TrEMBL record:
One of its GO terms (molecular function) is nucleotidyltransferase activity. Pathway: Isoprenoid biosynthesis; isopentenyl diphosphate biosynthesis via DXP pathway; isopentenyl diphosphate from 1-deoxy-D-xylulose 5-phosphate: step 2/6. HAMAP family: IspD (MF_00108). SUPFAM superfamilies: Nucleotide-diphospho-sugar transferases. This is 2-C-methyl-D-erythritol 4-phosphate cytidylyltransferase. It is an enzyme of class 2 (transferase). Catalyzes the formation of 4-diphosphocytidyl-2-C-methyl-D-erythritol from CTP and 2-C-methyl-D-erythritol 4-phosphate (MEP). It comes from Salinicoccus jeotgali. It holds the Pfam family IspD.
């Protein structure tokens, strides 16, 4: 099986959570969200190294929370936007064959999802994971429906996203040089004209963003413990 390095951007804030501190520090059960996220990769034998992008004033706190996580090789100061934070980490780490990028507030990624990505990235070089939307999707103009979208042709994208290291570095450099505004890493790869492969995720692989997400997270934990 291939080996990879994972980058975890963890420099966000809790604005939609209505907190004045980083949402990744919110506890789920006995562990903060970020510890639960990191431990998923700590437990994966194919993960060689874990790097985080953190806010300057939170780096010491992250080190304290992640004490004992032996694969954490560094916590690097993030930038203005998510893409700047990840590029800061990419610029600071040793080159690797493959790099995964995973949201710090997404603590329920499954072993199966990781396996799908690990199997696909050596073949396709750029791989995302996601799930089919459950709801009917409409394209709108203001408050008017323009069309109903075929759900079989769309996917709700999750992380991790997995890439060939050199490809991801090239994509980031191109995005910065051309001042591209993107919402995920695969958009930068698409901008190079490279195809992105899709593998399955799970509906439990939620990103904790709002107070309602905390209730869903508690339900997921109760289901897994049961």
């Amino acid at each position: 099986m291939m080996k990879y390095t994972v980058i975890i951007p963890a420099a966000g804030m809790g604005s939609r959570m209505n907190t004045d501190y980083n949402k990744i520090f919110i506890p789920l059960g006995e562990s903060p969200v970020i510890r639960m996220t990191v431990e998923k990769f700590e437990a994966d034998p194919d993960c060689n190294a874990i790097y985080l992008a953190g806010r300057k004033n939170e780096i010491d706190t992250l080190h304290e929370i992640l004490a004992g996580c032996t694969k954490v090789r560094g916590i690097i100061e993030g930038g203005k936007e998510r893409q700047h934070s990840i590029y800061n980490v990419l610029s600071a780490i040793e080159p690797a064959d493959y790099v995964f990028v995973h949201d710090g507030a997404r603590p329920f990624v499954s072993k199966e999802t990781l396996t799908h990505l690990k199997e696909a990235v050596p073949v396709h070089k750029a791989v995302i994971c996601g799930v089919k939307p459950k709801d009917t999707l409409k394209r709108i103009d203001g408050s008017t429906v323009e069309a109903t979208i075929d759900r079989d042709r769309v996917v709700a994208v999750h992380t991790p996203q997995a890439f060939d290291y050199e490809l991801l570095v090239s994509a980031y450099r191109n995005a910065l040089e051309n001042e591209l505004s993107v919402t995920d890493d695969s958009m930068m790869v698409e901008a190079l004209g490279v195809s992105v492969h899709v593998t399955p995720s799970t509906y439990d692989n939620i990103k904790i963003t709002t107070r309602e997400d905390l209730k869903v997270a508690e339900s997921i934990m109760n289901k897994r413990e049961g």
